[in-house]
Structure formats: structure tokens, C-alpha cells
Write the C-alpha cells for this entry.
Amino acid sequence: MRGTWTGIAAVAAALMGRAGAASYDDIPDIEVYGQHFFYTNNGSQFLLRGVAYQQNYEPNGTADSNASYTDPLADSAGCKRDLPYLQQIFTNVLRVYAIDPSQNHDECMELFASAGIYVVADLGEPKTSIEADAPEWNVELYRRYTSVVDSLSKYKNVIGFFAGNENVSAGNQTAAAAFVKAAVRDIKGYISSQNYRSTMGVGYATADVPVRDELAAYFACEPGNSGNSTQIDFWGYNVYSWCGESNYASSQYGERYDFFSDYPVPVFFAEYGCIVGVEGGPEHRPFTEVEVLYGNMTNVFSGGIVYQWFQSENDYGLVQLEDNDASVSPYPDFTSLRSQLASVSPTTTQRSRYTPSNSAPACPTTGSSWLPVASPLPPAVNPQLCACMAASLQCNIKSTDETKYEDVFNYLCEQHDGKYCAGIQHNATTGDFGALGGCSPKDKLAWVANEYFMDNGRSASACDFSGLATTQAPATSSGCGTLLNAVSGGTGDVPSPTGKGTAAVGTGVAQSSSKTGVAASVNPGGFVSYGGVLGVVYAVLAAVSMAGMLVL
Ligand SMILES: *[C@@H]1O[C@H](CO)[C@@H](O)[C@H](O)[C@H]1NC(C)=O
Ligand SMILES: *[C@@H]1O[C@H](CO)[C@@H](O)[C@H](O)[C@H]1NC(C)=O
Ligand SMILES: *[C@@H]1O[C@H](CO)[C@@H](O)[C@H](O)[C@H]1NC(C)=O
Ligand SMILES: *[C@@H]1O[C@H](CO)[C@@H](O)[C@H](O)[C@H]1NC(C)=O
Ligand SMILES: *[C@@H]1O[C@H](CO)[C@@H](O)[C@H](O)[C@H]1NC(C)=O
Ligand SMILES: *[C@@H]1O[C@H](CO)[C@@H](O)[C@H](O)[C@H]1NC(C)=O
Ligand SMILES: *[C@@H]1O[C@H](CO)[C@@H](O)[C@H](O)[C@H]1NC(C)=O
Ligand SMILES: *[C@@H]1O[C@H](CO)[C@@H](O)[C@H](O)[C@H]1NC(C)=O
């Protein structure tokens, strides 16, 4: 096994560039099959020997508006500098926490592919990710996540993506899991709708938190929604429980092995490498866990990703950059990791001799330590739906000054038990989701303002809100009718004040089937549709409240 791990020929080829023997395009896809990863060329099981590869970024998440990052795959000089050292520790996977989709990644990705190195990429970046304490799954995040997928999907050495990293890190943050699961579903759906390589998966990387068992079950369960699968393709586990000279039992690796032996998808350590603090600085890491992780755990765990390549304030670096970042100087941790990895020879499974037998676990039940309901999940985020909706309103928001929105939201959402805000609800604890909850603040406020306007005699004074809003001629472009229809009555997905997917009287989005003239009809969901010239308007049922106009 050791011979194949060193990959000397591959290094040489990579350093020689494309003229070398191994072309970057020869790298086989890695596929998920049951609980394992396999090479698609020969059916050998694939174990990750990964390194977290990101400079100037704290992966544990921050809402700091000043946070920034350096794209490690856009720095071709850095990739060339690091490759020979990455090869010395048998690296076959790099985990990157944030890339910039607008940059070019060809050189690094081709260099790594030529050396048999794959990439798993987180989809967020410090300023644009699902926040643990204020979780959302919305168009801004959707655009960021899909743009990362767009920019990396063309490289065959991309195994997949993390839709979140440690976004549930405390007992009171479990509701965030619902939004991450919705992101998993929508990004899996996006990869499939774009006809990108179907071997690319979407997973989640969890912190080792008290609710770890519920989290693992929640992300692997299929709550019975129709449509795109909501199950993660792989489970990343950030584990710092083996510290120094630990062992199988006290590190809880054994207990984790037992827990995940029934898991339906691959599990791997998405970060590992505990540091024990000692007087005078952190202790040198012996990496004795490597022998066990690549020893008798490979039936259940697909290897792991060491945290981390670059030295930073947290002292986890394997190497130090020197000479103005021109050269690499390994730390003793690098050397011990290298010798540990050099001495393992894992037993692997051949795809042809493996039949997946684990099925999806039951979703955890909502209780004191677990908040989000498993069904329904937050609705699919669809930027086009939001744009269609906003264009087809009669009262729209014109100001982009979001600091002025909150007062209007607060006022309108307090009216009539929140009926104007039903369509934008986004509450994972109760499962109350409006179909428009993932739209931008501006579009959501427009929807709410329009609901109020329709309910208050449609006079211009009911569409002002201190000058934020103005009336407009509703418009619809091709494709909008179908989208808007899909969120109206009959699908169970309609904005609803009572939630749980029931249709709400008076808040439906409906389209007339009449293409000419003005027609009124009642659709099966009970919504009156006024087919205007443009075909789509918002209808309000009989119980029109003539409550006082809003004066702010
Ligand atoms: C299968 O292919 C991979 C990638 O080329 C290679 O690393 C591995 O050694 C192969 N397995 C066998 C059993 O030859
Ligand atoms: C990230 O956070 C987790 C959980 O809070 C912690 O166990 C881990 O040590 C942190 N990692 C680093 C590198 O700070
Ligand atoms: C959430 O996950 C993303 C990775 O997709 C990460 O960039 C971000 O820092 C995480 N945020 C929090 C608050 O944990
Ligand atoms: C962000 O940067 C600005 C300008 O440098 C500074 O005033 C502000 O305090 C910083 N915010 C945080 C949270 O560090
Ligand atoms: C969880 O608790 C912390 C500390 O009390 C608090 O800052 C945070 O906002 C809470 N998060 C949620 C989602 O309630
Ligand atoms: C699956 O997701 C894609 C992308 O979000 C979407 O276009 C498609 O309609 C979804 N399919 C179903 C059946 O929900
Ligand atoms: C795996 O190996 C460790 C010692 O390295 C041992 O304690 C443990 O019982 C073994 N587990 C299994 C499932 O064989
Ligand atoms: C969700 O609804 C519950 C029950 O009404 C409420 O206690 C909670 O604050 C809501 N959560 C959010 C994020 O609004």
C-alpha cells in the first residue's frame, strides 16, 4: 500500500506540467455508494487523507462584518509551493472553507488533479453563511452557494461541498439545522438541474456537540417530502476528542464507530488533530489516532482531514510559510503525521463485493434538546420566484435602505394576528413557512406591504409607508405564471398564518387561466383570480378589512 500512497510518479508529472504522464483530466470521479466512497475507474474504496487548506480564515464561524478570506485555490504560486509537501503527507483531499467564485482556479485545480488530489469545498464564506443564531436560507445565500458550485463543478477532482460547517454549535442553535438541510436539498437539486457531474455530493460538517446524535439523524433522514432528496450525501465530523496519547475508548472513537455503523452515507473526520495546551505553548501532536482511524475503523469511517495546513493564531498549522510566503517550513507535527500515515496500510472494500444495507434513520422528534420539526422543511429558495412575485404586485418597495424596513415589518406583522406576514414566515421550530420566506428583505417587505394594500381598499395612501413603497402596474414575464401558480392553492405550500402547509384564505397567489380580457374565476384552492391584461394579479377574498390606514 505504501508504494501507491507516495505517488512519486504523480508528483513528478504534476511538476512537469501538462506534458507529464498524468493528465489532470485522467483523475477518476469519486462516487458515494452506501456508506463508502469509491473510485469510479476501478471500484476501489476511497479513504480521505485530507488537509484543511485555507489561509487567513477562522473556520469556526463569525458574524463579524469585517471578516475576510484568501481563496487558496486562486493562488497558483502557493499551490505549486505546497504540493510537494502535501504529497509528503500522502494528501489526496484538500478541504477549502471559502473560495471566491469570481477568481480563476484552473492552475491549482489542474495541478492538484494531476497529483491525484481532490477537493471538498465549503459553500459559505465568513460574511455569507447560515448563521447559527439567526439562521436563514435565502436568495443571497442561494446565489453565493450556487456560484461556488458553478465555478468548481467543471473540475473532475471535486468530490463535493459542505452546505454548512458547525452551524449548530450550541444546544439552543438546533433550529439552524432546518435551514442547512433545506440548503442541502436545494444545492443537490441545483447540481442535478444543471446536469453537473452527478458524483458531486453535498454534506454537512458538524462540531462535536452534545446534540451530535440528533444532528446526524436529522441530516440523514428523509422526512417524506416529495421532490428533491433532503438527505446529505456524506457526513463530516469535526472531532478533537483524541488528544495526545489517547486511545480508542477514552477518545470515544469506539463509541462513535458503533454509532455510525448503521449510517446510510459515508462519514469522515472533516477536521481532526487535537492540541493539548501545556505550559510554554501547545504540545507537539503525536497523531497516534491515525493508526486507529486508518486501522480497524475503515469499515465505518472513510478517513479524515487534518486541521490544518497553514499556521495561524490558533496554532494548528502543520507548516510555517517563510521568505515572504515563498517557501514552506514543516513543524514537528508535520513530521509525526507523515510517519504515522506512512506506517498504516488500511484494509479496504471493493465496490463489487459491497452491498449497501443501511437505510435512512428516523428523523429525531422535536423536544427539549431538539427544536426543528423535520417536516415541513423551509421551502425551496428560488430567486426567480421572488422576482416574479415582486413584479406582479400592485404595491412594491422602492427604497433599498434596509435599515428602514424593520419598523414597517414590525407594524404590519402585528396586524390581524400576523396575516399579512404569513407568506414570509420562516420558523423552523413550529414548521411555519411561507413560500416567500427565502426572498430578500426588500421583496418580502413588498409582499407584506402589498397584502396590506390589497386589504385596505387599494388606495395609494395604503401603499406609502413613509415613502418606502409605491404603487406599480403589475407585470409578469414568461415562466412567472407557472412559478406563481405553484405556490398558490392546491400544493399545500401556500403562505399561511396557521402554517403546516395549509392554504390560507385571502393570501393566495393565483393566476387566471384566461389569456384575454378581464376574467374572474375561483381556482381549486379557493382563490379568486382576476385575470388582468398581464394575466397575474393578487386576489383578496371577501373578508377585506377596512382597518385604518397605516401612518408611520
Ligand atoms: C484504483 O484507482 C485509483 C486511482 O487511479 C488508484 O489510486 C488505486 O490504486 C486503484 N486501485 C487498485 C486496486 O489498483
Ligand atoms: C472549533 O470549534 C469546536 C467546537 O466549538 C472546537 O472543538 C474546535 O476545537 C474548534 N476548532 C478550532 C481549530 O479552534
Ligand atoms: C456556517 O457554515 C459555513 C460553511 O458553509 C461557514 O462558512 C460559516 O462560518 C458557518 N457559520 C457559523 C456561524 O457557524
Ligand atoms: C470593522 O472595521 C471598521 C473599520 O475598520 C471598524 O470601525 C469596526 O469596529 C470593525 N468591526 C468589528 C466588529 O471589528
Ligand atoms: C443561544 O444562547 C446564546 C447565549 O445565551 C445567545 O447569545 C444566542 O443568541 C442564543 N441563540 C439562539 C438561536 O437562541
Ligand atoms: C429540485 O431542485 C431544482 C433546483 O432547485 C428545482 O429546479 C426542481 O424543481 C426541484 N425538483 C423538485 C421535484 O422539487
Ligand atoms: C480497534 O482497535 C482498537 C485498538 O487499536 C481496539 O481497542 C478496538 O477494540 C478495535 N475495535 C474493533 C471494532 O475491532
Ligand atoms: C417560532 O415560533 C415560536 C412559537 O411561536 C416562537 O417562540 C419563536 O420565537 C419563533 N422563532 C422565531 C425565530 O421567530
Observations:
- The radius of gyration is 26 Å.
- The pocket of 2-acetamido-2-deoxy-beta-D-glucopyranose (ligand 4) is lined by residues 64, 66 (CB under 6 Å).
- Confidence is low (pLDDT under 50) at residues 1-14, 16-21, 489-552.
